[in-house]
Amino acid sequence: MNTQERIKDIVTSQPVVLFMKGTAQFPMCGFSGRAIQLLKACGVDKLTTVNVLEDAEIRQGIKEFANWPTIPQLYINGEFVGGSDIMMEMYESGELRQILTAAV
């Protein structure tokens, strides 16, 4: 299985997936930390995280997969949602909570 197939398998096998630097317990960058905080604020308790710092192929491949240059990246029901800035905008408008509630 190549890297793109591995990523597709990850994002389609779980309802909420966050590709991030570090883990939910120990985020390794401020943007990843903010993404985790937003998901927790929306009541997400079933979250799959992928630490891109542990896998160079995933770290590069995820940028190509969504054609999005930065990490973190949020996927809900296999669909790319965005990075921490988009998550923040969606949280402030209430949209993030709505799609997360429908997904879980």
Which class in CATH terms? Alpha Beta
Mean pLDDT: 95
Structural class of the helix and strand makeup?
alpha+beta
CATH architect. name = 3-Layer(aba) Sandwich
The helix fraction, in percent, is 40-55%
The best one-word shape is globular
How many domains, in number, for the residues?
1
DSSP, total strands: 4
State the strand order across the main sheet: 2-1-3-4
Oligomer: single chain
Task: List the uncertain runs.
Answer: none
How many helices? The count is 5
Query: What Rg, in angstroms, do the CA atoms define?
Result: 12 Å
Describe this structure as you would to a colleague:
It contains 5 helices and 4 strands; from the N terminus they run H-E-H-E-H-E-E-H-H. By secondary structure, the chain is α+β, with helices and mostly antiparallel strands. Helix 1 packs across helix 3 (56-65). The model has no long low-confidence stretch (mean pLDDT 95).
Outline the fold blueprint:
Layout: H1 3-13, E1 16-20, H2 30-41, E2 48-51, H3 56-65, E3 73-76, E4 79-82, H4 84-93, H5 95-103
Parallel strand pairs: 1-2
Antiparallel strand pairs: 1-3, 3-4
